[in-house]
Amino acid sequence: MNKVLIVAYHFPPRTTIASLRPLGLARYLPEFGWEVVILTAALPGRPNPQFEVIETQHRGSLALGWGKRLFKLDPEQTLMTQIAQLKKKLRIKSEKSPLDLLLAAIGEITAYPDPQKGWRHFGIQAGKDVLQQQPIKAIISTSSPVTSHIIANELKREFKIPWVADFRDLWTQNYYYPYSPLRRMIERKLELKTLAAADALVTISQPVAAELAKLHEQKPIYTVTNGFDPVEVNTTPGNLTNKFTITYTGNLYPGKQNPEPLFAALHGLVTERSMDAVDIEVRFYGPQSGWIDKQAERYGLTGIVRQFGMVPREIALNKQRESQLLLLLKWSDTQQRGVYTAKIFDYLAARRPVLAIGGFHDVVSELLDETKAGICGQTKEDIKALLLQLYQEYKLTGAVSYSGGEAEANKYSHREMAKKFASILNTITR
């Protein structure tokens, strides 16, 4: 069996959405002839012993350490989280306050190319040790952070080993690039220089791949979507909730996602007595947002719309599996047409029908059409018609049926993701 070194800052038990992709590769690449060695920064706990994980030291950003000392903050919590708390305490509402501008200036200069740059030296040294001691045939680096690609670039140049650079998010082409045009121009040169040595680039959708190709014209670029872990598939559906339950799990981004069309549709149906308010519950599991409660109150849905706060991933998955409907709030920005939200893959594994609202036709719409796992509504009237149809089925049978195709959904599993990466590895190591 061949061996591949995966350079990934995010890996369990570092519990982030970003850790799911490298975890899926570590778990399923061996099925396709590639044994995995994970190279990562020191983790906040012990990794699963079934994986070979090499942890390195990680020198934190000097700017972040300085910032925490300046504002007398907790060194164990992230700077941005505590700055947000400090702004709330000082009643600073502006996103361009002097405090924000100061932090932006610090980050512009010192967090280059990213706040994890302190991992670079240790990652390179540990990577060299692995390549000298083990018969590694290829490298995969996955970002963000882009420091993982910089580490892989150094290893590629010294050991002349085939290298795949994987982008869960684009680098300087990212629509939400947080720094100034001047820094983007400087950093773009770093991106081109770093990836010049890569044998292949991978990203998460065809529209994003097309964007990546504009900058890296001569590079082979592959599309490999994220996915769900087959071990998390709801193979034996449990009892559904007695109510007509609509569940959303994860973060909400005001200005980018908007549940208001759903609230307006529910208000209209309840007012018209097409739906009984006693039957309905809309549940949000994730960071609590005051604006959600205000919107619900505006539409007379207080008591129907409920926020339960953050819960462990296992509980969130169980809440998905017991729900009549799963709510997906699509991005309102057309620049995100090629971006899959991470939760759509969790929803596929839950095997419950998805109601996607808002936005426009995008890769998520295409996925739901292909898998028959859900439906999309954009306007209030669209959503009212869809909800009424689903509610009538619920009243008649006690449940909203799931009609997704298993074979089609399985195309978006971590196993399929690993299979595609294995094919790329086989190509570049031939």
Textual characterization of the structure:
There is one protein chain. The protein folds into 3 domains: 2-59 and 115-225 and 414-428, Glycogen Phosphorylase B (Rossmann fold); 62-104, no CATH class; 230-412, 3-Layer(aba) Sandwich (Rossmann fold), CATH 3.40.50.2000. The protein contains 16 helices and 13 strands. The protein has helices at 20-28, 62-70, 79-89, 98-110, 120-133, 147-159, 181-195, 206-215, 260-271, 290-298, 313-321, 343-350, 363-371, 380-397, 406-409, 414-428, and strands at residues 2-7, 34-41, 52-56, 136-143, 163-167, 200-203, 221-223, 244-249, 280-285, 305-309, 325-329, 354-357, 374-377. The strands form 2 sheets. It has a 7-stranded parallel β-sheet, with helices on both faces. A 6-stranded parallel β-sheet has the order 10-9-8-11-12-13, sandwiched between helices. Helix 6 (147-159) links the parallel strand 4 (136-143) and strand 5 (163-167). Helix 5 packs parallel to helix 6. It is globular and about 70 Å long. The mean pLDDT is 87.
